[in-house]
């Protein structure tokens, strides 16, 4: 029997917001058309400087904070 537990859940999203109105400016569509078919009103995009690892580290840190876990790296004091 497994003893694995989920102690925390982390998340992070890129800060660049692209709305349906931004899409309307780039292509022949409308906000209403997009929302009616997908329900999407805005989406997040990573800029050219943001890497997967950056989002991963932020989400991991968020999960650790949520779990209340104490983290200690070799050679460092423990932090909570």
Explain this structure to me?
With 80 residues, this protein is α+β, with helices and mostly antiparallel strands. It is built from three helices and two strands. The protein has a two-stranded antiparallel sheet.
Topology as H/E string?
Answer: EHHEH
Shape: elongated
Unreliable spans are: none
Please give the count of helices: 3
Secondary structure layout plus pairing:
Layout: E1 16-19, H1 20-26, H2 31-38, E2 42-45, H3 52-67
Antiparallel strand pairs: 1-2
Distinctive features:
80 residues; two-stranded antiparallel sheet; 3 helices; 2 strands; elongated
Summarize the structure.
This protein is of the alpha+beta class and 80 residues long. The chain is built from 3 helices and 2 strands; from the N terminus they run E-H-H-E-H. The radius of gyration is 19 Å and the shape is elongated.
């Amino acid at each position: 029997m497994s003893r694995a537990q989920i102690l925390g859940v982390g998340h992070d999203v890129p800060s660049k917001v692209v709305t349906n109105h931004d899409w309307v400016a780039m292509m022949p569509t409308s906000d209403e058309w997009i929302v009616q078919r997908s329900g999407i009103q805005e989406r997040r995009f990573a800029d050219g400087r943001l890497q997967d690892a950056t989002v991963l580290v932020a989400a991991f840190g968020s999960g650790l904070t949520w779990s209340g876990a104490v983290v200690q790296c070799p050679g460092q004091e423990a932090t909570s």
